[in-house]
Amino acid sequence: MTKFKFLYLLPVLGMLACSEDPLSENPEIESLPQENEFNQNLTEVAYPDTKGNVSSVYYAGQKLPVAEINGKYVYQGDILLPKSKATTHYENLIFEEGQAPATKSTGRTSGMWEDNTVYYSIDSNLPNKDRVYDAIKHWETNTPLTFIERSGESSYIYFTPGSGCSSYIGQIGGRQEITLASGCSTGNTIHEIGHAVGLWHEQSRMDRDNHITINYENVQRGMEYNFETYAEGGYDGEEFTSNLDFGSIMMYSSYSFSSNGQPTIVKKNGSTFSVQRSELSNGDIRGIESMYPSIEQKPEKPEEPSTPNYINGEYYTLYGLTVLRYYDSWYYGSRFGWRKIKLVNGNWYWA
Ligand SMILES: [Zn+2]
């Protein structure tokens, strides 16, 4: 039996190494460091004064580094992951026969709001509600999404005060909060709504290393996890623009989480860049239009996904799990040896 040696290849979901940028010694600095990025409203954070313990959880088939703060999993500063749907064990991604999966996959292309309609409600204690109304108006003017004040619907966004700006990703089911501290602007609210309808951060794209370099030496200690790309979990969603969009309202600034006033993110030529928090970029709008085609444009019958041709003896990472194709079946190498599993509607089950 030679199969067991392949166990070493299992979860290949670790951190991406940061690469040295040969040009960083001679950067063409385009703009000066900002004193405090949060005050500049260009980096949204859920809990500005708290770091929390960093650990990894599996969520929607991806391994994500999170900080645990106030009993919440915080990802990349301002993204909250629902605790009931995140698991600390890889094998929890495989269910027993008949067991309803506890997780609903969410990513750039799922956790969608049906019929392009987002329900919401505003906490009566939220100061300056106009930033919510203005942000919603901006979304409705520029995208096919409609926002309707909730009247009994079970899944909805709840805009409420908090210590920072934060949101969940996509529709998670039930009431999901967007927190807005008094310092969160209309632009920050547009950004947080972007998360709630399914957008991740632009600098975390899978291909971002082709466009930018992360200067980890300038990142605040304990904040490095904010600069991870999405793990190659096989469920990373889609990128809707061919290039990294520096104008995206979902893009971090050059000085996000800087410890020393030096840039944490630079372009490949070493230069810094400016970001904005006033409007959705053309790339943001194109992405949203791909995720939420206007009702008239929707094809009458959804296209059947073509079945990929899996090769026996090869490993694949599918729906969060690294699995072996063998005699036209799937196998998972657990600590008890190889076990046959099967894929049903995007969830793995013991076969
Ligand atoms: Zn964000």
TrEMBL record:
InterPro entries: Astacin-like_dom, MetalloPept_cat_dom_sf, Peptidase_M12A, Peptidase_Metallo
Cofactor, free-text remark: Binds 1 zinc ion per subunit.
Peptidase M12A domain boundaries: 104-294
The organism's place on the tree of life at top rank: Bacteria
Active-site residues, record numbering mapped to chain: 192
Cofactor (UniProt): Zn(2+)
Membrane spanning stretches: none
Transferase recorded as keyword: no
Record's keyword terms, sorted: Hydrolase, Metal-binding, Metalloprotease, Protease, Zinc
Protein name, per record: M12 family metallopeptidase
